[in-house]
Amino acid sequence: MSLLSVEGLKVTYGLRNPVYAVRGVSFEIFEEEFVGLVGESGCGKSTLGFAIARLERPPARIAGGRVVLDGRDWTAMSERELRPHRWKDVSVVLQSGMNALNPVMTIEAQFRDVMVQHTDWSEPAIRQRALEVLDMVHIDRDILFRYPHELSGGMKQRVVIAMAFLLHPKLIILDEPTTALDMVVQREIMDNLMELRGREKFSLLFISHDLGLVLEISDRVLIMYAGQIVEENRAENLLEYGLHPYTQALMRSLPVPGSDAREFHGLRGSPPNLRQMPKGCAFAPRCDLVTAECHEVEPDLEDINGAKVRCHVVGKEVRVRGSEPSIG
Amino acid sequence: MGRSLLSVENLTKRYPSRSSSEGEVVAVDRVSFELHRGEVVALIGESGSGKSTIAKILTGVEQLTSGRVLWEDGAVASKAPRLLRQRIQMVFQDPFSSLNPVNTVGYTLMRPVMNYQRCNGAEAERRVKELLDQVQLSPASLYFNKRPFELSGGQRQRVVIARALAAKPQVIVADEPVSMLDVSVRAEILRLLRSVMGQQGVQAMLYITHDLATAEILADRVLVLYKGRIVEHGTAKSILRRPMHPYTRLLLESIPNPRARRGNRVPVSLRGENREGELRLTGCLFAPRCPLAHDRCWREVPPLEARSDEGYVACFNASQSLVQTGAVTARDSGA
């Protein structure tokens, strides 16, 4: 059974003339699975992450669909009902989460706050767990008594990740956890996450605009464009052969050291304005494979060889060729 | 490669330290390099490596403590701020904060055009539109009246590049121009920066970044900085293919590379961050993180020496272990 099941989730901004930032997203995350969510700025990936953890705040609103986490329908629960499950069922590390630390509290006080509010653990147990999570992210134990401003950006980010593990959550959502950091620090944090995978039981939703980073860590990847999932595929398949033209374009935009710079291309154009969505496929205006049908009919997310893709052209191509595409 | 347009000689910048016991912080320590006509030079390093301090000194925002910055015609940069602004322009990291949100794109670009190209009215407007075309914001008339909030990150960065070009500078200093942008638009901005070389009088570029992968795409030569000192210097190609300094290797290994995922990728072994206020070191500043460090590294500062046709490196160990066995990582040979 899946740990998280998102079913037809819709999130809007504004009441009178709502903009659909998330337009009917469905996917699952299984126990101890690492899933990546990739897309450009404004595609709705952070909004989706917020909504899954029910952290959306006005003007954002869930306008349809369900989020079922560990058998409970989070979309049907009140804030009071959700409260005992926060940090335990799901914990979230936000983009620039390191700035979410309270500047006038020591790290210890902030850790304690989470544990006192959400558990009935004894004082020694609380202290023990605080030390454990710091060890997990390889930070000296003595930083517990420091204030955030005494730590570097990379250390703060690791403190925030450590904090997310405090109550042994089943699902951790990381939204661009390394974007503001140097390459080397990013590498250390990524290695650290892989290492934690062997020690703690948790599922991960890793949100980023950097497909390269996501592919490194994820088992399965969701590609999001203009509020919808356009491809869902296993990471090893994507490395060989991204199905959707958008996925392929993202792959081409990754600067891989030592590769030919001429093969390195950005995407032309910009994502569509969500207030004026084009008829048909949202990616059509930027797509190299576009046909007349693409401008008229919105494609569905279809199953193809165990993956899912939302594209008229690629969908047909692969079906005609049968199970042949060069996967693996 | 042409003549040297700008020479940086023994550039040093010290800041007074907050705690008096430590004396002062050496942000840039005797850095020398030349910027030739027609080339892009990348300055690479982590936070605290001194790369942005060098940019600030070159653009006149900060004053150097010692050393000098000399232009081809003998002008000393630090003594003529007006001349500096004309010759050197900056592209900033964050296009969300480097553009005034209440001004239109047209207004933002008109001011430097009128100021530095000494023209007015219709002529200035024509030149602004020319600039917009050049940075591929077309049709120019559409973008002329837009405000920053109506533009995407990539489009804003194009405006910032146009603003730098408006002064008709000889040198552009681009400080992390793509690190705030989506990976998907980085390629096009880097291409644009490459393409502005030779246009509007731009003759050379300094590209400041922590990302070796993008440096390979944009730069001809690469200088690797660690805590204010140059530790390696060479062509972009040679540094990416055969990095000699253990720190350069660390930077290279840190680049996300999905093709070398999991089992294949060598985990970063050189732990420890670039921390401020560390104990004073008499030897190599990288020694505390270096798996190859031995007694001499802690005692003496390794000089920057030519180690191959293409490169210079400041490391006592670079000559044998790293150069000859290109495939062996710092970790393998050290641990």
Secondary structure: elements and pairs:
The complex is a heterodimer of chains A (328) and B (335).
Chain A: E1 2-13, E2 19-30, E3 34-38, H1 45-52, E4 60-69, E5 72-73, H2 79-82, E6 90-93, H3 107-118, H4 123-136, H5 153-164, E7 171-175, H6 183-197, E8 203-208, H7 211-217, E9 220-225, E10 228-234, H8 235-240, H9 245-252, H10 292-296, E11 302-304, E12 307-309, H11 312-321
Parallel strand pairs in A: 3-8, 3-9, 6-7, 7-8
Antiparallel strand pairs in A: 1-2, 1-4, 4-5, 9-10, 10-12, 11-12
Helix pairs in contact in A: 4-5
Chain B: E1 4-16, E2 24-36, E3 39-44, H1 51-58, E4 66-71, H2 81-87, E5 88-91, H3 105-116, H4 121-134, H5 140-144, H6 153-166, E6 171-175, H7 183-196, E7 204-209, H8 212-218, E8 221-226, E9 229-235, H9 236-241, H10 246-254, H11 295-299, E10 305-306, E11 311-313, H12 318-324, H13 330-334
Parallel strand pairs in B: 3-7, 3-8, 5-6, 6-7
Antiparallel strand pairs in B: 1-2, 1-4, 8-9, 9-11, 10-11
Helix pairs in contact in B: 3-4, 3-6, 4-6, 6-7
